[in-house]
Every structure is written in structure tokens, then in C-alpha cells.
Amino acid sequence: MEIRDAHFPGRAPLDAYGSGGFRFANMSHRGSILCVPSGIYGWDPVSFSDLSIEAFARVLEEQGDIEVLLVGTGPDLRPLPQPLKQAFRDAGIISDSMSTGAAVRTFNVMLSEERAVAAALLAVE
Q: What's the CATH fold of domain 7-121?
């Protein structure tokens, strides 16, 4: 049996979040997700303390196609650590942290406006 990383090859609005996961494109995913121009990926972090520069490697790989990164920090707003914010700034990416629900809503609006947006979203129950 071959196990592959969760990946949806394309951009899609997020239809729902909660119960530990997300729904999009007539599919569901349990756990956190990363939405970048190349697609929607399962994302390893499960809590705010898991957010590190390594966790955002795919975002930095696609930096030329991303202007704004929304970071859903779980049920509550948590400011990103300064080293992370600086790494995004150095890559030319504006980062904005907010609760996961607010990030989902903002991502959908920006996606509908065809903005160069990405989202890193921690799953919430």
C-alpha cells in the first residue's frame, strides 16, 4: 500500500471548518491544512507551539506567487513570533495571524477577488 501526502491540486474555497478538519471541493480533510497556489495540502502542525519556519517551507518555496499569508492560529488569535514574521517579510510576504475561523472567511474573500493569497490553518474542534 502506498500512502501519499494529502494534496488537492488547485485552489478552492473552504466550505466548512471544525470538528478537527476542513471541507473543500466536495472533499474533507481531518487535521490542519496549508492552502498555497499549487494546491491544498495536509499540514503537520496541530497546535500553535508547532509553528516553526520549517512548517512554512512550502510557503517560502512558492513565495513569488504569494503576497499575503493568513495564519489561522486555532480558536483564538495568537500573534506570530517575530522571527516568523520577519522571515515572511524578508520573502516579500505580508503575514497576518487570526483565529482559524476568521482566516477561513478572509481566505475565501481574497480568493474570490483573485488575490495572491495563501493560508496556513490549524484545525479546530
A: Hypothetical Protein Mth938; Chain: A, (3.40.1230)
The one-letter code for the residue type at 115 is R
Q: How far apart are CA 53 and CA 88, in angstroms?
A: 9
Rounded to the nearest 5 degrees, what angle is found at the Cα of 46, between the Cα atoms of 48 and 25?
115
The per-residue pLDDT for range 73-115, each reduced to its tens digit, is 999 999 999 999 999 999 999 999 999 999 999 999 999 999 9
Encoded amino acid at 86, one letter: Q
pTM of the predicted model over 0.85 = yes
User: How many Å apart are CA 50 and CA 25, to the nearest integer?
Assistant: 27
